[in-house]
Each structure stands twice: as C-alpha cells, then as structure tokens.
Amino acid sequence: MIPEIGQFALIIALGLALIQSVVPLVGAHRGIPEWMAVARPAARGQFLFLVIAFGCLTYAFIYNDFSVRYTAENSNSLLPLQYRISAVWGAHEGSLLLWALILSGWTTAVTIFSRSIPQTYAARVIAVMGLISIGFLLFILFTSNPFDRLFPIPADGRDLNPLLQDPGLVIHPPMLYMGYVGFSVAFALAIAALLGGQLDATWARWSRPWATSAWIFLTIGIMLGSWWAYHELGWGGWWFWDPVENASFMPWLVGTALIHSLAVTEKRGAFKSWTVLLAILAFSLSLLGTFLVRSGVLVSVHAFATDPARGVYILAFLAVVVGGSLLLYAWRAPKVRSSGSFQSMSRETFLLINNILLVVALVTILVGTLYPLFLDALGLGKISVGPPYFDSVFAPLMIPLLFLMGVGPFVRWKQARASELIHRLRWVFAAAVVLGIGVPLVLFARNTIMVALGIGLSGWIVLSALYNLWSHIQRRRAHKSLAEAVTGVSRGIYGMTFAHLGMAIVAIGIIFSNAFGVEKELRMAPGESVALAGYVFRFEGSRPLEGPNYRSDQGVMTVTRDGRKVATLHPEKRIYHVQNNPMTEAGIDDNLLRDIYVAMGEPLTDGAWGMRVYYKPFIQWIWLGPLFMAFGGILAASDRRYRLAQRKEASQAIDAELNPSPGQT
Amino acid sequence: MSRFLIPAAIFIALVAFLAIGLTLDPRKVDSPLIDKPVPQFSLPRLKDASQVFSSDDFKGQISLLNVWATWCFACRQEHGVLVELSQQQQLPIYGLNYKDERPLALRWLRELGDPYTATAFDEDGRVAIDWGVYGAPETFLIDQNGMIRYKHIGPMTHEIYQTKILPIVKQLQETRI
User: Fold this and answer.
1) Between β-strands A550-561 and A572-576, what pairing exists: parallel, antiparallel or unpaired?
2) Dist CA A531 CA A517 (whole Å)
3) Residue A382: its pLDDT value, please?
4) pTM for the full predicted model
5) Chain A: nearest CA to B22, how far in angstroms?
6) Is the predicted pLDDT of residue A656 greater than 50, yes or no?
7) Please, what's the b/e burial string for A345-361 (b: 16 or more CB within 10 A of its CB; e: otherwise)?
8) Res A657: pLDDT
9) CB proximity under 8 Å: A 296-315 to B
C-alpha cells in the first residue's frame, strides 16, 4: 500500500509541475497577475508531494519491503539502518527521485526568498524550474520507477553495493545533487531574464547568492567524493579523472567562473551576455553529467545500471533544455547592451582572464572526457584518456590562475595602473618567492623547481589575500576602532578571502603530498616491520572480525617513531555476504601535517599479507581547503547587501506593481 | 546574431556525437578474433625465462588468458577476483604480462598472489598487438581447440564471470560430450 501512495504522490507532483510551469508562463506573457500567482502554491505543493513520495520509498527501505523491486535490488535485511536510509539514493531510480526532490526544494526556496522580485519575473523563474521538474518526473515515471513491484517477493534483498556502505557516501550524493540542481536557479533566473528581456544589474544581484549557494554545495560534494575515494579504494589516491568525477568538476569550474563574472555584471554592468551564457552552461553541464553517468556511453568506475532507453530519454531532454536555452540565448542576447566601459588594465580584465582560464580548463576536461566517445563514434577505434593527459593540460592552466588570484583583488575597477600594483605587491611577491624556496627546504629538506613554484604561488595567494583584507580594514581605521573596522568590512570581502585561502590550502596539499609522499608495497608476515619516512610500521598480525553484513580480516599495525608509539592502525579486508565483493578499508592516522595510511592487499601464506604502506604529508589540506572555500561562499552569499537589497527592492516592487510603468510586462 | 549562435552550434554537434555514442557500447569491442584460432606466438615465461609459453599451450582444455601489467590500475582492481577464481580451480588462468618490467611483475605476483597457471612475458607488447589488445586488463576465453570464444575488456568481476563466461564454458563442455 505504502509504495502505491508514493507512486500516486509522484503522479500528483507531476500534475502540479505542469500547472507550475504552464499557467504562470502564459500569465506572464499575457500579463494576468492571477495566473502568475499560481506559480508559488503549485511549486510548494509539488514539493510536498515529492516529500511524500520520497518518504514512502524510505519507508520501504527501513521496513525491508522487498516486494518493491528497487528495494530488493539495493538493500538487505542485514544492512544497518543508516545504510538502509542512504540506500534510498544508492542506485539509479532513487537517486533520480532525490534529484527531483532537491530541485523542488530549491524551487520552494525561490518561492520564499523571491518576494522582492517583480511578480512577472518570479513567475517565469518558478515556471522554468517547473519545466525542468516535468522532464525529470516523466523520466522517473516512464523509465525509472522506484515503486515498481516485484513478484514473487524475494526472501531477502540483494544488498547495497558495498562500495557505498561508507559514512562519506551517505552525504556525498545529496551534497553533490544540491550543487548540481542548485545551478538550476541561476539557470532559471537567466532564462526568465532572457524571456523578459531584462538583463540588468538587479538580475545579476538576484543571481549571485543563488549561484554561490549552489557552488558551496558542489564544492562540499566533490570534496566528500574525493575523501571517500581516499578512504575506501585503498589506493591512496584521491582523484582519478574518472568521467563521473569530471562530470562533477566541470559544472564546478563553470560555476566558479559564473560567480566571478556575476560580480562584474552586478558591479559594472559589463559581460552581461557572457554571464548569461555561463549560467546556462553551468546547469547544462550538470545535465550532461547526469547523461554521461546514466547512459553508459563512457566506461567509468561508477557502475550505475545502464539502460539504452534511459540514455535516449536523457539525451532528448538535454537537447530540448540546453538546445532551447542556447537558441533563446542566440535570439535575445544580441539585444543586450553591456554598459560599463573599462580599460585593458582593470579588475574587469583580470576577471575576464579568470573566466577564460576556467572555461579553457573546462574545455580540456570536456574534450578529454568525451574524446574516447568521439573516436568511437567516428569509427577510429577505442581508447581511454588517462590521468597523464589531464595532469599535463590542467596544471599549466592553474599556474596563471593562481598567480592572478593574488593580484586580482588589488586591481581597481574600470582603470588601474600597473606601477601602483607592482608598488603595493612587491614585498608580498618577494615574501612568496622566499616561502616557495624556503618552506619545502625547512619541512622536507628538499625542493624542486615545480614544488617551489607551486608553494610560492600558494604563499603568494595567502599573503596577498591577508594583505588585501588588512587593507580593507585599514581603510576603515581612520574614524573607527579596530573592532569596528574589522566588523565593518563586508562579508563579501571576508568570503573572498576565505575562498582564496582555501584554494591555496588545496594547492599546498596537492603539491606536498605528490612531491614528498612515499609508499611501499610489500609482503608482511606477523611480527615483521618496515621503515618508511622515519616511521616504523610493525605488522602484529590479522584477526577475523564479524560485521553486521560482512566478515572481515582486520590487520593490526603498530606505528612508532624514534621508539615512541604513534598510532595503531586497523586496516580491513572485508567480504560482504550478499554480493561477495572484497572491499578494502584503509587504516589511517591523520593530522594536519601528515597521514600514515595502511591498506591490506591479498592474504599470502603463513598469516602474511600483501600490504601497502604510505606516508602522505599535508594530504588532509586537500579536503581542508574546500571547507574554507565553502565557508567563504557562505559568508559571501549572506552578505548584508543582498538582505538590504531585498528589503529595498521589495518596497520598490510594490510601488511598481501599484503604479505600473508603461512597457513593463 | 551569428556569433551568439556559436554555443548552440557546438551543442548540436555534441548532441550528434552523444547520440551516436548511445548506439555503441564502450566495453564491447567486436574483436575480429572471436571464433578464430589464437594468434601464434612463443614467449619466455615470466617466472623462468628459459621456459617457453606458446600458443600451443592452450590446446586440450578450456582456459582464460588475462592480459595485465603492473602499471594498470584496473588490473590491480581485478586481481583479487582472479586469485579467488584460481582457487575455485574451474579453469586454468594464463597471464600475458605486457609492456612491463620483469622485477616489478614478479614482485606484484609475490605480493598480491599469483592466480596464473603460467604467465607469458611480452616485454615489447608485440604479441598483445596480435591479440588485438588495446588496453589492459582484457580477458579471453579460449576453448579446448585453441579458439577464442569470448573477450572481456575491463576488470574481471565475479558477476561477469558468472553471467558471461561460465555460460559459454558450460556450452563448450556440453558440445564436447
């Protein structure tokens, strides 16, 4: 009964999505306020019914209702409760339902936080989001119904993929989807603005907090995915340039370009048509990512059940949504006038270069990801593009980007002078050179040109970001106390500072762990020791362990340094009962300066094991950086300016509605 | 207007490629070698270079040939599966270690376990070319007459073994009787 309620709720949600998109669009076109007013309640109703549908599916998982095919395929009565809940989005059907739920959640957020936006515009935004929702709900109902029943009812389920039975994976997909789908708001704002022909600074100001919020979630989502890979794949790696990873990274790059470009459009009125294109692109890449993951056109370690019918549907959907948007763009964008002229030496130019670098980085990844597909489609054979390609094209693009990140915040809008910049930053630059050369020598007693360059650039960003913040505070010191000056600086400035520091932290983590990490792979019998990077790893032996739904061999490894005990690590080799898959759980002792990491390979004779032992300096910084970035994003999105603007525009919007000016539709 | 159409044009081209891509299976290569005799070769064995492993060694039994290398990430992923399969002793598994270095390959087998009845050492990868190998890992199913019956590209899993390879093995065993 419960699954049928879920199914029914899903169909009602689809009906509401239809109303949410069609009625307000017609209303906005004809100028009928009552029709436009339908948008908000319809969107909220859709959300309510999707919550019910999602709740019903979750109920089926919690109470082990294996008459539901999707539950039977992805759960098991032995599966612990937290994984029974996360199994709801552990495979294709449920994760799509989550997608739809999150989309509808974002739409509901728009209905709440859009009171300051003119009614026509808000109605169009909500309607566009409704159109996307229709596409996904139809997809779920016709090709991927999570509520399909199974007969005869199996005695037990086939269990959740053991790779997904990890705390990191419980929250990774929802975070990622929040990011992916969050860009639909910026997308809908752009499309509605194109439809209404009103691309102006207020459009950019409304878009900024939404784009930034989506970017925050995507940043965290990608970070969690990488962290999970590091813990669970037992290979010490944290990024594999897998098509699915790239699918999440591409919208992130465009999203990053978008939040910078929106700054220019809001403050200076420039780059309007470019910013709109980025807003369309960010969400389009989210959709493309969905297509690549679900259609099986590319080989990936992320095994989703693939089905040609699904691929055809998503491709058609992609073609309609993205193709339609880009045609609308081609039709409307030429009429958009960018204002705000600027000199070649200005903040605008620096942000333009930032955008170009990010988009070029996106294109290299897109080409690398799709290249095997292109060759295959042209009948030129099958190849795979691996990390060497991505590493070699990506790193050179990051070097100028990191350098500009240090300069950009100091450059004035409209017109700046190079001599002034050089004068202000000369000591920062000198200090960065010293850091680049000195820090690796102090920490690791070694250095190379590439490490010095990378650490120098990171130091450059850190110092200039802090110096920039200090300059902002100093400017307010004239009439105020230090405390007042510190709190007087806008959250936007603090946000930028944190985000840029985060980028430097990631860079430091990548550079140090790559350059100075060491690893050993060897056979270890109980009682044997191995020395690595000043640590002595002693294998005490392994013991069998019984988990809730797996059995495991747990190794015990004592790590000492200079005779003092540092840690006892417990790597595991698990065999999950139902799917009979071996899984590696790495034993890790982490702190901010280094990780020591042990993973078990294969059992050998006499209680010995193949062991992989790693020392990875600074690797935690790779995941610490995104936290800084996300925190910066939160500060920026909650800047006072947006809240004030909302109130001010709310009163203006009311005035405008009371006294409609001619030509406003 | 024209330059604003560029994104749409690029996108249309992309959709065309994706549409073609949908009709193709990236894991499936229609190997021209299926149902053909194995390519003739003779290579030194990995563990003992003085001994030879040749295409004649496949005759008289149904066997698997797994192409691997120590530089191949996916090979490491599948290795545990191969070790377990070899312990079940249903089929002999032969290895073709290609474009690799002997000490590294030997260390790999020592540390991760050796599922192979014998491994041929194809240092410059020439034999792998004859077999149409374009990326490791690949696994071939060879029948008792030395004919290639199936080819799997990518890491071997228990599921692939159960659903794709075993049925063909059963069929082959029945035809022999």
Assistant:
1) antiparallel
2) 14
3) 61
4) 0.81
5) 6
6) no
7) bbbbbbbbebbebbbeb
8) 44
9) 296-299, 308, 311-312, 315
Q: What is the phi/psi pair of residue B50, to 5°?
A: -80, -20
Averaged confidence pLDDT in chain A: 87
Strand partners, B67: B96, B138
CATH numbers and ranges of domains, chain B: 31-176 (3.40.30.10)
Q: What is the ipTM of this complex?
A: 0.74
Say how many CB pairs under 8 Å bridge A and B: 102
Which residues on adjacent β-strands are paired with residue A642?
A: none
Cα–Cα distance measured from residue A21 to residue A489, given in angstroms and rounded to the nearest whole number? 41
Q: Is A377 on the interface with B (CB under 8 A)?
A: yes
pLDDT, tens digit, 9 for 90 and up, residues A441-478: 999 998 999 999 999 999 999 999 999 999 999 888 87
Percent pLDDT > 90 in chain B is 8
CA distance A333 to A355: 19
Query: Could you tell me which residues come within 8 angstroms of residue A473 by beta carbon, excluding any fewer than 6 positions away?
Result: A482, A485, A486, A488, A489
Which of chain A's residues have a Cβ under 8 Å away from the Cβ of B111?
521-523, 601-602, 604, 610
pLDDT, one tens digit per residue, over A636-647 is 998 877 765 555
Q: Would you say residue B11 has pLDDT above 80?
A: yes
- Residue among A523, A585, A522, A518 at smallest CA distance from A551: A585
Contacts of B14 in chain A (CB under 8 A): 370
* C-alpha–C-alpha distance, residues A300 and A395, integer Å: 23
Residue % of chain A over a pLDDT of 90: 51
For residue A366, the one-letter residue type is L
The shortest CB-CB distance from A298 to any of B12, B26, B135 is to B26
Enter the tokens of residue A56: 């019903």
Q: Grade residue A220 by pLDDT with cuts at 50, 70 and 90.
A: very high
pLDDT digits (tens, 9 = 90+) for A568-614: 999 998 888 776 667 888 899 989 999 999 988 878 878 888 888 99
Assess B71–A contact: CB distance below 8 Å, yes or no.
no
- Beta-sheet pairing, A564-569 with A535-546: unpaired
Backbone torsions φ then ψ of A350, nearest 5 degrees: -65, -40
> What is the pLDDT at residue A306?
53
Mean pLDDT across A268-293: 88
Q: Please name which of A372, A37, A278 lies closest in space to residue B17, comparing C-alpha atoms.
A: A372
Burial class (CB in 10 A: 0-12, 13-18, 19+), B88: exposed
Do the chains contact at A602 and B112, CB–CB below 8 Å?
Answer: yes
Query: Any idea how long chain A is?
Result: 665
Distance CA A178, CA A197 (A): 29
Distance CA A617, CA A549 (A): 34
| Min distance A302 CA to chain B CA atoms (Å) | 13
Burial of A210 (0-12, 13-18, 19+ CB in 10 A): buried
